[in-house]
Amino acid sequence: MLAILFGIIAIVGGVLLLALTDPNTWWQAFKDVVQGSIPPFLVFIGFISIFIGIGNIKDKIAEKKEREEEEKEMKEAEKEKKSE
Fold first, then answer.
1. pLDDT score recorded for residue 81
2. What is the residue extent of each domain of the chain?
3. Which residues contact 26 (CB under 8 A, 6 or more apart)?
4. Mapping DSSP to helix (H, G, I), strand (E, B) and coil, where does residue 48 land?
5. Over the chain, what HEC string results?
6. Mean pLDDT throughout 5-33?
7. Residue 52: predicted pLDDT
8. How far apart are CA 32 and CA 81, in angstroms?
9. What is the largest CA-CA distance in the chain?
10. What's the Rg (C-alpha) of the chain?
């Protein structure tokens, strides 16, 4: 409940600040913030994508090994059944 109240207060405060100040002032500041935050954001997203890709490759390799082990165990079980 407190988060909702804080959210409403933040929205009202932001709208009031936008309405009471010169649009050129905050628009330029907004553009500066966006232009300054996009490159670090892209680098961060790039690192996350690389780590996810590496994790997917490791998962595929582990899955392949598990499948091979299961097939090997099944073949051994079939051989034991045939020998009995």
1. 76
2. 2-83
3. 17, 18
4. helix
5. CHHHHHHHHHHHHHHHHHHHCCHHHHHHHHHHHHHHHHHHHHHHHHHHHHHHHHHHHHHHHHHHHHHHHHHHHHHHHHHHHHHC
6. 88
7. 93
8. 74
9. 90
10. 29
Give the integer Cα–Cα distance in Å for 24 and 3.
Answer: 31
| Residue whose tokens read 């002032």 | 25
The residue written with tokens 């590496």 in the block is 54
Tell me the two tokens of residue 19. 């309405």
d(CA 65, CA 34): 46
- Return the residue matching tokens 């966006």: 34
What phi, psi does 8 have (nearest 5°)?
-65, -45
Instruction: Note if the pTM is more than 0.90.
Output: no
Amino acid at 10: A
Q: Kindly state the tokens that stand for 42.
A: 């892209």
